[in-house]
Amino acid sequence: MFKNILFVFSLFLFCNNQQVVAQKAVELADIVTYFTLDASDVATIQSWDFGTEAGSPVTWSDAQLQWDETSSTYLKHGTAQITVEGVPTTFSVILSGTKIIVNRVQLNLSKSPAVPVFEMERILNAGGIKTVYQKCENVMPKSFGTLAYSLFIPNKKEAWVAYIWQCLKGECSANINIYYEKDKVEKLPCY
């Protein structure tokens, strides 16, 4: 019995590892576009089922929503291979919102010396996304900061993105937050 359980657990770990290895890297502008709403959608927010279809660039680590006491929101966790400045990097992906809707998508890169602070506006513009500066003007390079933009993508509804970064002792972390409502960006503090 114990051997059978051990075999099934080993098989589960092997299959999960194979799934992560097989995950295809996507460009940063492409994943931002992926998480925005189609212009033809009646909805103005995302549902929790979004990103679970075959071919999704995200590998979800939990199928069920997780309640987060600290932020008083529901969360869904995953990972995605995202290419930034030619470097494929694993980002954590976190959907957050109420029990009914997703109101923010977080793409987090933690403590990576491989990808330095990058110019979000230039990368998005090169990927066909028009950006309009909203708040938190910073002169790059800087060891930490916040920049927020409105996003205009062909055949998509307007969305907003906040790019927050911090570098310390040669390691950088970056958070890219995609919002479906402008007031969420307007409430962000500037660093």
**What class, by secondary structure content?**
alpha+beta
Mean of all residue-level pLDDT scores: 78
Strand count: 10
Number of helices: 4
- Beta-strand content: 35-45%
Shape: globular
Give Rg in angstroms.
18 Å
What does the largest sheet look like?
10 strands, mixed
Task: State the low-pLDDT regions, or none.
Answer: 1-22
Count of domain modules? 1
- The helix-strand sequence is HEHEEEEEHEEEEH
End-to-end CA span: 56 Å
Helix content: 10-25%
What report would you give on this structure?
This protein has 191 residues and is of the alpha+beta class. It has one domain. 21% of the residues lie in helices and 40% in strands. It has helices spanning 2-22, 28-34, 120-126, 182-186; strands at residues 26-27, 58-60, 66-68, 73-84, 87-97, 102-112, 130-135, 144-152, 159-168, 171-179. The longest helix has 21 residues, at 2-22. The model is unreliable at 1-22 (pLDDT under 50).
Question: Brief description of this entry?
Answer:
The chain has 191 residues and is of the alpha+beta class. Helix content is 21%, strand content 40%.
Outline the fold blueprint:
Elements: H1 2-22, E1 26-27, H2 28-34, E2 58-60, E3 66-68, E4 73-84, E5 87-97, E6 102-112, H3 120-126, E7 130-135, E8 144-152, E9 159-168, E10 171-179, H4 182-186
Parallel strand pairs: 1-4
Antiparallel strand pairs: 2-4, 3-4, 4-5, 5-6, 6-10, 7-8, 8-9, 9-10
Question: Features of this protein?
Answer:
191 residues; alpha+beta; 4 helices; 10 strands; 21% helix; disordered N terminus
